[in-house]
Request: fold
Amino acid sequence: MQSFIVKHYLGTELDIYCGGPDTFKGTVESCADGVLTINKDNRYTHIAIDKIIAVWEEK
Reply:
């Protein structure tokens, strides 16, 4: 998943679903060492890649 995110979504605004109520939104800043970093309103969120179930571009 890490190489897929870097290749296709770096710099893209995404919705990220991790199960249950856990959905995150933000622009992909980086993806390395098993961690996805997104930025929303100058706040960074770091998500463990192995917890991600689905991603889609924010419309």
About this structure: Residues 2-9 form the longest helix (8 residues). The chain is about 15% helix and 55% strand.
